[in-house]
Amino acid sequence: MTKPRRKRCRLTRLTLFIKAVTPSLNQYRKMHWGTRRRLRPHLAWLVKAAMSDVLLVHGEDDVRTFLAHRMHVRISSHRRRGHPPLDDDNLVGGAKPLRDALVDCGLIHDDSAIYAEFEYEQVADGGVYTTIELEPAREVKRPSSKSSK
Q1: pTM score, two decimals?
Q2: What does the alpha-carbon distance between residue 32 and residue 19 come to, in Å, rounded to a whole number?
Q3: What is the CATH code for 14-136?
Q4: How is the chain split into domains, by residue range?
Q5: Burial, 129: exposed, middle or buried (Cβ in 10 Å; 0-12, 13-18, 19+)?
Q6: What distance, in Å, lies between the first and last C-alpha atoms of the chain?
Q7: Which of 11, 91, 109, 113 could pair with 86 in a Cys bridge, judged by C-beta atoms 3.0 to 4.6 Å apart?
Q8: C-alpha to C-alpha distances, 109 to 20, 83, 99, 103, 115, nearest whole angstrom
C-alpha cells in the first residue's frame, strides 16, 4: 500500500481588493473615539467580503495551506489624483487598523515581524480603493552561531 500524497497548494499569491482607503495617521488620531473604534471591524468586514470571492475560486483547503506560511503583505493605497501624497509615516500609521483586520480575519497569525513583513505604496490613479497582496515571504538564512574551538 502506498502513502497518500500530500496535496500541494497551487496558490502562489492572494490579491484582495477593498473599496476603501485607510486614513492617514493624522486623520486617524483626530477621529472621534467611537468612529476610530468602528473602523477596524468595518475593515475586517471588507476583507472577509473580498476573501469570499477567493474562497469560491481556490477552495478552502488551498487557501488554508497557503496561509500557513510567513507572509509578505503588500498594501497599495489607490488615492485620487491631484491630492498631495501622504508621507511614509502617515501612510504606515494609518494602515494599522487594516493590519489588525488582517489578523482578525485569520490571513496572518500576527502583525509582528516574526509572522509577516509589510510593504506599503500609494498610487495616484484616480481610484479610491486598497489592494492587498499576500505571498509567502522568502526565508532569510541566518548565520549559525556555532563557536569554533
Answers
A1: 0.82
A2: 22
A3: 3.30.1330
A4: 14-136
A5: middle
A6: 49
A7: 91
A8: 23, 35, 11, 6, 6
